[in-house]
């Protein structure tokens, strides 16, 4: 078990208490030797005890600790030693310590009030000393003494306030980083839900529609049509729900592409096979020897195929032909998903039974993944249909 900073500071604090106590005893003995009255020595000793106790209390209760220290300093301010002011007793160093702790914990307006109390105490001390100043001691010495005390108290207060504001800025920055991480994670969840669930729902709807086209029973066709419509409604509801998880896009984060489910190039063939139906001819071909890819590039390739096939099945009226190709080159992998435009190109007048949906977040998410992997993504419309193409670098070509 490692020691905490508080535990590490205890030996230093105990040592400081011991050293200052010894020095205070020696200073009181010296003042007694130079003619200080017994009550003065006892009063100063009591004030020193208050200061040491205040330092201990202020660790957990800054206000009572500071008030106790101020009381001890007030006692010292009323004592006039023959040689020097009692406020300069070594144990008086605990007073700025209690001010430091108070400033670092309470609101700024309260710490200003504590600073005003300290300044007032210094002024009172110097006025009492001026009234009792022996004729042989010049008055400027009290001005210098008061100035030094003001400098110490003001410096301690300013340093404590600066450190506090720096800690608060660090906490705000950390909160900002946490908020950005949460937003980034929400966007990642949003993309994954879209990629996985939306693709599955689209394939289900496409197969139901294919079955409705091939069946000869009107009642069955109507029933299958209702089921397909319900599936499309569910897909739109899913998109509306995902919109509540965050904005459509977020800046790609370092290490983007790490997914919660194992995704690989070998899974593309199964993905394509699961999307095929009697009215959806989805084929897969791989050209050239495979080369090593980074994990982010492999995930981007899978998501590109998934999004391309999903969009073709969702937006094009069957029958539809979709070809998926992976073409390997020395420096990169080209992922291409091409469709033939569906039956819309073969219906007189170019009319369609189902209009394409609006541009969703799927392609935006795929674009982020491809860019994070160091590649490029393009979507083009040809004479026959749409082409989704991603160029991803291999490890050898990166």
What does this structure look like?
With 398 residues, the chain is α+β, with helices and mostly antiparallel strands. Helix content is 61%, strand content 10%. The protein contains 10 helices and 5 strands. It has helices spanning 5-33, 38-57, 62-77, 94-103, 108-131, 140-214, 218-243, 266-275, 295-315, 362-372, and strands at residues 280-287, 320-328, 332-339, 376-381, 386-393. Strands 1-2-3-5-4 form a 5-stranded mixed sheet. Strand 4 (376-381) and strand 5 (386-393) form a beta hairpin. Helix 4 runs parallel beside helix 6, helix 5 runs antiparallel to helix 6 and helix 8 runs parallel beside helix 9 (295-315). 35% of the residues are buried. Mean pLDDT is 77; it is low at 1-5, 248-261 and 344-359. Residues 299-389 form the Histidine kinase/HSP90-like ATPase domain. This is histidine kinase.
Mean pLDDT: 77
Low-confidence stretches: 1-5, 248-261, 344-359
Gyration radius, to the nearest Å? 40 Å
Shape estimate: rod-shaped
Q: In what range is the share of β-strand residues?
A: 5-15%
Spatial order of strands in the largest sheet: 1-2-3-5-4
Fill in the keyword field for this structure.
disordered N terminus; phosphoprotein; 398 residues; five-stranded mixed beta sheet; alpha+beta; single chain; 10 helices; ATP-binding
């Amino acid at each position: 078990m490692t020691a905490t900073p508080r535990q590490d500071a205890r030996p230093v604090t105990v040592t400081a208490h011991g050293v200052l106590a010894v020095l205070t005893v020696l200073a009181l003995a010296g003042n007694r030797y130079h003619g200080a009255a017994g009550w003065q020595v006892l009063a100063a000793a009591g004030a020193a005890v208050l200061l040491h106790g205040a330092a201990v209390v202020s660790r957990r209760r800054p206000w009572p600790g500071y008030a106790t220290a101020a009381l001890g300093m007030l006692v010292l301010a009323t004592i006039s030693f023959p040689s020097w002011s009692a406020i300069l007793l070594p144990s008086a160093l605990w007073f700025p310590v209690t001010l430091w702790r108070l400033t670092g914990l309470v609101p700024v307006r309260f710490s200003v009030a504590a600073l005003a109390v300290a300044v007032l105490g210094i002024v009172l001390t110097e006025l009492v000393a001026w009234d009792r100043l022996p004729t042989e001691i010049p008055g400027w010495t009290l001005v210098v003494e008061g100035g030094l005390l003001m400098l110490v108290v003001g410096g301690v207060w300013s340093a404590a306030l600066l450190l506090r504001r720096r800690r608060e800025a660090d906490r705000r920055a950390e909160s900002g980083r946490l908020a950005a991480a949460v937003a980034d994670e929400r966007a990642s969840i949003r993309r994954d839900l879209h990629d996985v669930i939306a693709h599955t729902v689209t394939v289900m709807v496409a197969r139901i529609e294919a079955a409705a086209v091939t069946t000869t029973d009107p009642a069955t066709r109507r029933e299958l049509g209702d089921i397909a419509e319900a599936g499309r409604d569910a897909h739109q509801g899913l998109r509306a729900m995902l919109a509540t998880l965050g904005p459509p896009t977020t800046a790609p984060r370092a290490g983007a592409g790490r997914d919660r489910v194992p995704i690989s190039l070998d899974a593309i063939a199964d993905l394509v096979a699961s999307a095929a139906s009697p009215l959806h001819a989805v084929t897969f071909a791989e050209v050239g020897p495979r080369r090593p890819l980074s994990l982010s590039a492999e995930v981007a390739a899978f998501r590109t195929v998934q999004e391309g096939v999903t969009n073709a099945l969702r937006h094009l009226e069957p029958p539809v032909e979709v070809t998926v190709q992976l073409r390997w080159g020395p420096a990169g992998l080209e992922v291409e998903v091409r469709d033939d435009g569906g039956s819309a190109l073969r219906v007189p007048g170019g009319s369609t039974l189902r209009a394409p949906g609006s541009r969703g977040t799927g392609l935006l998410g795929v674009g982020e993944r491809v860019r994070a992997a160091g590649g490029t993504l393009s979507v083009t419309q040809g004479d026959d249909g749409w082409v989704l193409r991603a160029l991803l670098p291999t490890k050898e070509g990166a």
